[in-house]
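--- STAGE predict ---
source: upstream dedup step, 1 unique chain passed
mode: sequence only
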Amino acid sequence: MTTPHARTHEPHTESGAALGRRDAMLAMGALGAAAFAPRALAQVNETDRALAQGGRGIISARDLGWDPEARRYILPELRYAYDALEPHIDAATMEIHHSRHHAGYVSGLNKALDELAKIRKGEGDAGLIKHWSREVSFHGGGHVNHTLFWLTMGPKDFIAESPSLELLAHMERDFGSMNGFWTHFEAAANAVEGSGWAWLVYEPNAGRLLITQMEKQQDLWMTGAAPLLGVDVWEHAYYLRYQNRRGDYVKAFRNVVNWAMVDELFAIARGV
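--- STAGE serialize ---
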């Protein structure tokens, strides 16, 4: 199956060159409770760090959902076809999730920012500041969360199926074992009330890994934490295949995690 939103990774030209500090901040910055990314991704050096599937290639601002020329958020292309994660995540769900749900968050985020710009110019209703600020947080959170979700997954023949020895050592220290991590992570995901996410995060003050829950796209987020791996447990992420069996979906998620990308995010979060 092919799709206009799927591609193999190729070197970027000038408009998609290696992501520098400024573009990383523009791409992922100031998005309410999900704004871990400025801290993490702003550390990407223009020449010496590549973020990509399997640790190969270069990630651009467009990969992070930002058009630096237009200065607008955009829907990032996937690095694999919609059917590439079968049988664990079905093609129909992937297509709807990416091309409709994620696209909706991008549209909502740009709309909210446009309305706030009008208010600053005296052309909008200042009484709606609270409303549009909430829209930035919700839609911006949705955009950032999903961008990372796509990047940290991949087809079995292309991904790193286990974490690096360094990340594994931290997992064993903070969760007892990889099995302990998965037990905790899956339980957290299954226990999210209503719609939301479970995240593996790095907390820089203590220098440790934690597992957190997120309601909706942004609520209950831990300020300063750098997300490394998240699973979307909104029903639109799994209902076509799994119906109400969220636990089966969360368990299947193990099979599509690209640990090479998680390793890269872990290194960036620690400033390595």
